[in-house]
Every structure is written in structure tokens, then in C-alpha cells.
């Protein structure tokens, strides 16, 4: 071990103190000599009896008037086999529960965790972390130190504990604390050794959340062209919102009772309905802008500029076409069920759909990750602009503009559509989960791949086992056994596989893969290793599905002018109804009915409380305003006094100078 300053700092004084601290608690080792001596009929006497013998005390018997008290044993006349407590009419518990506990010799159990538990666990954490991360004697060369403010400064190398060793010790520390306070297992050491035999388990990289990638790709594509769709949709919505008079005027002039929907700038794939509504009422909006006398506001000016664009409806239709194509992916993966086995095929399918619109067919024969190598920024990989698939609705609307626009303008619009597609595809390729080998391996658990391409499934399962083994999540023996069992599973008869995967519908969320695989593999000795691997794979997250689903649920619940408490309460009610399985499955208890009866009273109490809070706040504001006026007046008076004093001082200085001049002239 290399002797460094860090090592000396750790061991000066502390090692010797720790050594003698341990030595003083040592217990003499039993040598078995007393047993040998007893077999030889040699008496063995403890050393304490010879060195400090205990004095023998004689029992003194006093003769008195009272008898000796009887011992409290089975011969006592008041002895009962069954414990009982006797109370008379005079036995009143003046001290309450505390006196009752003393009389009955009982204790009161505390509710919840012991009060000393947080202190004990904090002390244990501190003790373990200090021993593992501060007092560990490992001396290895650590990474070079860098200072952002002094990038050229060369710091001396530091020796100490590596990050891997520190992380491993920290994980073991918290595991032992958890096991020590929760349960004790005889196989704890074996389990720790099996998990951390070589190194700490590495993280399995599945790439960026696919839901956010698809969201961001469409937004990036629309922003790459100079269409300004988001500004148009926002201003169209805010032109009519919170304005009943303008809505009535719009209905009177156009005869249309439909109004724009709210546009969300960060959730593009949920705006397909917004695109459709804008297409539906755009002609009425143009008529309204021409006939109505509107103020020169920013929304009005934006809509008037957009009305001069002959391709606006075509742009809205193209955005809606792309959003509709991406929508199934978003809806399918907004679930908490295990969906990682479907991620590879779903992303590949979406990417292929988009690339088929603008990439040459010869390049689309490749599969899987090879799609990521196609550079859509190169024009030689793309089809001609006039052959771009822009969708049926866009083509129809583009044909209707033939009178007002030229062919060159049409080609420029189609070229912009191609530019939007290529930007969106490039964003998907950059952040795509298809890059990750683990995602491709997880697709081996897809029922469609197992049933229709068993050889491909076996190849991908080998990739999965390889990734899990490299990450130190499974050992070599488990990987080999799981591979054999998966091969046997894929070689089952086609009818048996169809029966196993019959309840599986990859486009629904009713039956998950955990239920399907668990119903067949749990309890099967021939597939126990395979089930261990599948359990690890099915807990992997396919993205922020909970967050995305929460956005969608909140969007369907929200209405205008809702306070934060109302939103939270309504979301709680929605989640409770979903948990119960519907409104009809909720049990209406007496407590619930009583609570509903008192709702009106609580509402008035809440209003009264808010009114009181508002009055107190207004009172504080009035008092603060009064104090501000007083402070301002005093500051004005102080300023006036200072100015008057300054003028008087200047006058005195002038008079003093004149007197000094006269005084000097007399000499």
C-alpha cells in the first residue's frame, strides 16, 4: 500500500485508539483446561473467589411481637393460579390511565414507529458512511482535478477511494441498515455475495423517453419551416375566448357556432383536434375579419396576415396528417403496464411511416437500426419534391388553390413539407431508442416476434442476455440456463403459443405481458430461470408514462377559472373512481352521506374564512399604505430641513470669508 498524506491523515492516532477500544472488549478464549482437570478429579476454583472472596453473612433471627412475613409463593393463602385484580368501591383512578397502568402492571403501546428510530437510523447511517467512505484504507490514483476558473493549472494527483468502491460500500450500507431494521434472513450474506460478487450493477440504457422524443420531433419539424402555426392557433383561440360579445358577433356574421380550440405549445401530438377545428372554421374566420370592425390588436393583425397566405389550409392539413400518424404511438405508451418489449417495433414502425413519405424506396429495404444510418439531409437519399407524399387532405386542398397560385409556388410549398419531414426524422434518429442494443433485445419478449419470427426472437434474446450480463444484473449461469429455456419456449407448437398469447392485444391495456408470462411460467420448474430474466425486463420503464398520462387526464378534466385546490380535488376524485372500477362500484357509506350533507356548511365556513383573510389582508395593506405616507412625509421634511441648513451654512461661510478678508486688510 502506498504511503500518502491521505493515508497518514486517516491513521494518525485513530488506528491505535480503535485497536485498544477493541482489545478491551475481548473475552478470554475457553481452552478446555477446566474440563480436563475435572476429569482428573482436581477441583477448579474461580480466581475471583481466591483474590476477593465474598464474605459469609450470618442470618440473624430477632424475637419480636410480629410474625415473620410469609413468602410470596404458592404456599401463600392469597395465591391464585390465575392472575386477577380486585377493586373496591373506594378504588377510584384519580390519575387516570397512568394509575391504571401501574395497578395492572401493563404498558401502553405507541402508535406508529418508535420515537427513537430516526435518531438510531441516522446514527447508523453516519457510522457506516464514515467507516466506508472516510476511514477506508484503499489508496488509488483518482481522476485529475480541474478548476473551471484556472483550466491551465496543473493540480497534484490525489490518492483515495474510487467512485466504484464508494458506491458499492454505500449501497451495501443502506441495504444492511434496511435489512437490520426490517427483517433478518439467514441467507442475507449469500444474497449480498450473489448480487455484489464482482461489481455494482450498472444501469441499463434504454435511451430517451420515446413519448417525449415523438412530442419534440413534431414541434422541431414545424418550427424548422417559417409557417408560424403555433402563433396563429394561439391568437385564433384568444380572439374569441372570454369575449361573449365577439362570439355573438361572429355567429351573427358567419352563421357558425363553432369556435377555435385551445392550442398547447408543448404537447403537439394532442393538437390534432385543434388543427382540424382551425381547418373547419378558417373560411368563417376570414369572413369575420373582413366584415367586423375589430381593434388593431396583435391577435387580429396575426390573423389578417395569415388570411393573405393561400397555403394556410394546406399547412394545417399537413400538420394534422403528421400528428394523426404519430398519435397512436402516444396513446399506446401512455400506460403503466410493461411496454418495453413493444418499444423497438413501435418506434421502427413510426420512423418507417415517416421515411416512406420522402426517402427513396431502395433505401427503405433495410430494417431496424439501419434506418438510423439514412441521412435525410442529403438530397440524393430523397425522392423528388413533386413525388412527396403529403397526404390526401393536403393534396385536395392544394388542388383547390390552383387558381390563385402558380406551379412554382406549389413546388416551394411541397419542398417546405419535405424539409419539415426531414427535420422531424433527423430528430427521431438522434434521440431514437433504436440506438440501444438493450431495446432491440427486449423486443424478443414481444408475442408477435416469438410467434412469427422465432429465429429472430432467439437472436435478440441473446443480445438481451449479453447486455444484462455486461451490466452485472445477471450472472453467467443464469444467462446460459435462461437461453436454453427460451429456446425450448420458442420451439413449442404454434397452437400452444397461440393459446398462451391469446389474451394479448398489443393495442390495448387490458392484459399486460406480466400477466400473460406469469400465468404460464410461474410454478414451472422448466422455466424458472427464464422467468427470473423476464421479471427483470418487465420492470424496466418505457418512459415517463405516468407523467404523460397525467397530462392527458388533467387536460380532459380542466375547465376555465379553476383554482389549484379544485384541480387537486377533482383529480383525487377521478383517480378514486378509476381505482374502484367505475362510478357504479363505489360504496356509498353513511359517513360519506353525512359528509355530503355538511358540504354546504363547510362551503360557507370556507367563504367566511376567505372573507376574513381578505379583510385582514386589506387591513394590513391600509396600515402599510398609511405608514408609507408617514415615512414619505418625514423624508420630505428631513430633506427640506437639510436644504435649509445647507443654505444657512453657505450664507455663514460667505459672511465668514468676508470678515476674514476685512481682518486681513487691517494688518
UniProtKB/TrEMBL annotation:
Q: Which UniProt keywords apply?
A: Coiled coil
Is Coiled coil tagged as a keyword?
yes
Q: Which residues form a coiled coil?
A: 603-662
Kindly provide the name given to this protein in its UniProt entry: Uncharacterized protein
Amino acid at each position: 500500500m502506498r504511503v500518502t498524506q491521505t493515508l497518514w491523515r486517516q491513521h494518525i492516532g485513530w488506528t491505535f485508539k480503535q485497536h485498544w477500544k477493541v482489545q478491551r472488549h475481548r473475552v478470554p478464549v475457553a481452552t478446555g483446561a477446566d474440563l480436563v482437570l475435572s476429569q482428573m478429579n482436581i477441583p477448579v476454583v474461580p480466581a475471583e473467589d481466591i483474590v476477593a472472596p465474598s464474605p459469609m453473612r450470618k442470618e440473624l433471627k430477632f424475637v419480636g411481637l410480629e410474625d415473620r412475613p410469609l413468602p410470596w409463593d404458592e404456599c401463600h393463602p392469597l395465591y391464585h393460579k390465575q392472575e386477577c385484580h380486585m377493586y373496591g368501591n373506594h378504588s377510584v383512578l384519580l390519575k387516570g390511565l397512568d394509575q391504571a397502568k401501574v395497578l395492572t402492571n401493563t404498558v401502553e403501546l405507541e402508535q406508529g414507529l418508535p420515537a427513537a428510530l430516526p435518531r438510531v437510523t441516522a446514527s447508523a447511517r453516519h457510522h457506516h458512511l464514515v467507516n466506508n467512505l472516510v476511514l477506508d484504507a484503499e489508496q488509488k490514483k483518482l481522476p485529475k482535478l480541474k478548476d473551471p476558473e484556472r483550466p491551465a493549472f496543473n493540480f497534484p494527483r490525489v490518492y483515495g477511494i474510487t467512485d466504484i468502491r464508494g458506491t458499492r460500500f454505500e449501497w451495501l450500507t443502506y441495504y444492511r441498515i434496511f435489512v437490520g431494521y426490517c427483517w433478518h434472513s439467514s441467507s442475507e450474506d449469500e444474497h449480498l455475495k450473489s448480487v455484489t460478487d464482482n461489481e455494482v450493477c450498472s444501469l441499463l440504457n434504454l435511451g430517451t423517453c420515446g413519448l417525449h422524443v415523438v412530442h419534440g420531433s413534431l414541434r422541431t419539424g414545424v418550427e424548422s419551416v417559417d409557417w408560424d402555426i403555433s402563433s396563429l392557433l394561439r391568437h385564433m383561440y384568444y380572439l374569441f375566448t372570454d369575449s361573449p360579445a365577439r362570439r355573438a358577433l361572429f355567429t351573427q356574421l358567419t352563421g357558425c357556432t363553432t369556435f377555435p380550440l385551445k392550442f398547447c405549445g408543448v404537447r403537439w401530438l394532442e393538437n390534432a383536434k385543434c388543427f382540424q377545428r382551425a381547418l373547419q372554421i378558417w373560411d368563417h374566420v376570414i369572413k369575420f375579419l373582413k366584415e367586423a370592425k375589430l381593434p388593431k390588436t396583435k391577435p387580429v393583425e396575426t390573423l389578417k396576415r395569415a388570411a393573405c397566405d393561400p397555403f394556410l389550409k394546406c399547412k394545417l392539413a399537413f400538420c394534422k396528417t403528421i400528428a394523426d400518424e404519430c398519435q397512436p404511438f402516444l396513446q399506446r405508451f401512455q400506460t403503466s403496464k410493461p411496454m418495453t418489449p413493444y418499444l423497438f417495433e413501435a418506434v421502427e414502425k413510426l420512423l418507417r411511416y415517416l421515411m416512406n413519405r420522402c426517402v427513396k424506396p431502395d433505401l427503405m429495404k433495410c430494417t431496424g437500426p439501419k434506418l438510423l444510418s439514412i441521412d435525410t439531409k442529403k438530397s440524393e437519399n430523397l425522392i423528388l419534391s413533386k413525388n412527396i407524399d403529403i397526404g390526401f387532405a393536403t393534396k385536395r386542398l392544394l388542388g383547390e388553390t390552383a387558381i390563385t397560385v402558380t406551379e412554382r409556388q406549389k413546388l416551394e410549398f411541397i419542398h417546405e413539407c419535405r424539409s419539415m419531414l426531414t427535420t422531424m426524422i433527423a430528430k427521431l434518429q438522434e434521440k431514437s431508442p433504436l440506438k440501444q442494443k438493450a431495446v432491440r433485445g427486449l423486443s424478443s419478449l414481444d408475442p408477435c416476434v416469438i410467434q412469427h419470427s422465432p429465429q429472430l426472437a432467439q437472436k435478440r434474446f441473446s443480445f438481451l442476455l449479453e447486455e444484462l450480463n455486461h451490466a452485472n444484473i445477471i450472472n453467467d449461469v443464469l444467462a446460459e440456463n435462461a437461453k436454453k429455456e427460451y429456446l425450448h419456449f420458442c420451439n413449442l407448437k404454434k397452437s400452444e403459443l397461440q393459446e398462451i398469447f391469446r389474451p394479448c392485444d398489443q393495442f390495448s391495456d387490458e392484459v399486460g405481458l406480466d400477466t400473460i408470462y406469469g400465468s404460464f411460467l410461474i410454478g414451472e420448474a422448466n422455466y424458472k430461470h427464464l422467468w427470473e430474466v423476464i421479471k427483470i425486463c418487465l420492470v424496466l420503464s418505457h418512459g415517463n408514462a405516468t407523467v404523460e398520462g397525467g397530462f392527458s387526464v388533467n387536460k380532459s378534466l380542466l375547465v376555465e377559472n379553476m383554482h389549484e385546490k379544485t384541480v387537486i380535488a377533482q383529480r383525487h376524485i377521478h383517480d378514486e373512481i378509476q381505482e374502484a372500477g367505475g362510478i357504479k362500484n363505489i360504496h356509498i357509506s353513511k359517513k360519506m352521506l353525512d359528509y355530503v350533507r355538511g358540504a354546504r356548511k363547510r362551503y360557507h365556513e370556507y367563504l367566511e374564512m376567505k372573507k376574513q383573510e381578505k379583510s385582514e389582508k386589506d387591513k394590513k395593506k391600509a396600515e402599510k399604505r398609511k405608514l408609507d405616507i408617514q415615512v414619505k412625509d418625514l423624508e420630505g421634511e428631513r430633506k427640506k430641513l437639510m436644504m435649509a441648513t445647507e443654505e444657512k451654512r453657505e450664507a455663514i461661510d460667505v459672511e465668514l470669508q468676508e470678515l476674514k478678508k476685512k481682518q486681513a486688510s487691517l494688518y
